[in-house]
């Protein structure tokens, strides 16, 4: 079994006949929880696409079991089927036996990254992604050529060239969000006081991709929290929380970012650390588990995770105090997987949206199926992601919405890509709430 050059874990020993190394392999108790009943199959995106048993949760658990017994290597089919998983956790919601597939996948992906040599092209592509996306300064620098490219893309010759890009590059190009240089370089106030009587004091994770390409969502979040009586702190020297790398199995660098996030936020005198990104929140709430075997950080991580709340959880726990203006229209709510399945935050976003007078909130058919975004999945597996995105778009169209809302930047980009010609605004829920509170027209993006 080969190991990627430069890996920090190249000296991790093997345990007996197992294909896994000794650092946090899948736990036998968790593997044995699966009774292979099949309740997960209707909710699994890849099983729905291909009908392949090994691309279902129970099939992947079977492969993990074989690898733990040394009956299959991590290279080849094992890696392929694990890479094909979106990590959406719909199976966790569906499972009647309480199988913790999230923890199993979380333990397996780092094993693959440490112990399997990816082909050169795949490795370079993944390295390029992680050399850019977790770094706010690099993203801001990329916003300048990005804005220029989007203007050039209106030229037919440039558009033709873009349409000839190969698979993964074409996927990245098609997912490029509307780039505003002003927005990319904007900064949130370090402190925003509560409007009226103070009800609490919170700190906001501004994020990396979120703060550069969806800064307007962060601005709306700060305004809404302040309008509802919260002092809002946004530390300038915060960095990436590590979620994107963690979901891709890059454990060492992800935990390094997690520790830096804990160290920065634990010094703040706040009641809650708020996140408005589903993927970030799901990882930050798991820091305590992820560092449970780290004597230095375990308690600090648990204390930090206990204070993390999604913005909808914060807004839903108290009666609203800010007046709302009506919104007369149909609003389709898409459950971001890492909010609905991973964090179990489903009722709160809907409750928050229903505080807007006259809003008609509608759910989607096949709501449990992932849209195909899934962290970096729509870049590394563009064909499967494209099929899922098109399927999600058709389900959205079927409810004839005036506005679509979802609480994750990846979902906003993925659904936006597949509904670009529909002309329906696609927003974060706090943007719609912010417009209602301020009495301004609903933004287009």
From TrEMBL:
It catalyses: (R)-lactate + A = pyruvate + AH2; glycolate + A = glyoxylate + AH2. PROSITE patterns: 4FE4S_FER_1, 4FE4S_FER_2. InterPro entries: 4Fe4S_Fe-S-bd (IPR017896), 4Fe4S_Fe_S_CS (IPR017900), Cys_rich_dom (IPR004017), Glc_ox_4Fe-4S (IPR012257). It is an enzyme of class 1 (oxidoreductase). Its EC number is 1.1.99.14. Residues 1-17 have a biased composition (Polar residues). PANTHER family: GLYCOLATE OXIDASE IRON-SULFUR SUBUNIT. This is Glycolate oxidase iron-sulfur subunit.
